[in-house]
Amino acid sequence: MIKTALSVENLSKVYSGDKKNSPKINALNNISFEVKQGEIFGLLGPNGAGKTTFLSILAGTVIKTSGKINVWGFDLDKNPRQVRASIGIVPQEVNLDAFFSPKKLLDLQAGLYGIKNSEKITETILKLVSLDKEAESYSRNLSGGMKRRLLIAKAMVHQPPILVLDEPTAGVDVELRKNLWSNVKELNKIGVTIILTTHYLFEAQEMCERIAILNKGNLVALDTTKKLLDRIKTKKILFKLKKFNTEIKLFLPNINFYIISDSEISVHYEKENVDFEKLINYLKENGLKILDISIHEGDLEDVFLKLTKN
């Protein structure tokens, strides 16, 4: 039986206005969801959606207004220390002491959690995040990707079963991002539950098994990544053609034609309503010679924009 790693029930957070008579701000509106043990779960939303408020409540720096949070079997109100011990939060900002080595930083972090020297697993964690060869280097000499991995290592010193990654690849180049995700997948393979926030939606689409989308404090979607992608009904096709007369009138039921140039046409239609073969034949019958076809089936960004644009 799969255990629930994190349970959120009717969670709300209301901020009072800064000035007298100023309106209250509903940062979170009665949201509920669960994260299963061992999954990579995406928590997405535009700026101001409520993601930071939620993570701050988990971290203990913001007090919720109402609702329940249960982490690894511990109630946030009744067992706050056990909840903190069950979570490792990797912040978006790189906050490392430039003159400490990775090994010293992890040993210090473990000490803050009250972990005895005999129980520290510093070397093991450094190997997990591929920093064992840089264990004695100054943190200031590490690359951007290494610093990100060191933040993950710091969050792992007390061996939490849940790891929260807040925008872990912000400002990281493509190669370092690839290495970072490889490390995250390895952590997940050994049983660590991952909760991910990111503005790079293609990352969430590739990494996450299930995704929750917040907008203006409301939970507007919660489903598997596959089912969210299945919501995209519109197919977009770009035809590259031999030069043609742009004055041509194109019409087929249930299809929108957009002439981009004298050698490109974009076609949009609902997947269930159009026979692709008939579309191709129609273009040929109108004297259009097809040189290349690019098909866009829709991605998580399309779903995200559709759910959050209003």
What fold name stands as the CATH topology of the largest domain?
Answer: Rossmann fold
CATH top level class name of the largest domain: Alpha Beta
Which outline best applies?
globular
Number of strands: 14
What is the N-to-C succession of helices and strands? EEEHEEHEHHHEHEHEEHEEEHEH
- Termini separation comes to 39 Å
* Overall pLDDT: 88
Low-confidence stretches: none
Essential attributes:
alpha/beta, six-stranded mixed beta sheet, Rossmann fold, four-stranded antiparallel beta sheet, Alpha-Beta Plaits, 30% helix, 310 residues, 14 strands, globular
What does this structure look like?
- The structure is a single chain.
- Helices cover 30% and strands 30% of the residues.
- By secondary structure, it is α/β, with parallel strands linked by helices.
- The chain folds into 3 domains: 141 residues, Rossmann fold (3-Layer(aba) Sandwich); 65 residues, no CATH class; 75 residues, Alpha-Beta Plaits, CATH 3.30.70.1560.
- Strands 6-7-8-3-9-10 form a 6-stranded mixed sheet, sandwiched between helices.
- Helix 5 packs parallel to helix 6.
- The longest helix has 16 residues.
- It is globular and about 80 Å long.
- The two termini are 39 Å apart.
Short précis:
This protein is α/β, with parallel strands linked by helices. The protein has helices at 51-59, 80-85, 102-112, 122-128, 144-155, 174-189, 201-207, 225-229, 276-285, 300-308; strands spanning 4-15, 25-36, 40-44, 66-71, 74-75, 87-90, 162-166, 193-197, 210-215, 218-224, 234-241, 255-261, 264-270, 290-296. The two termini are 39 Å apart.
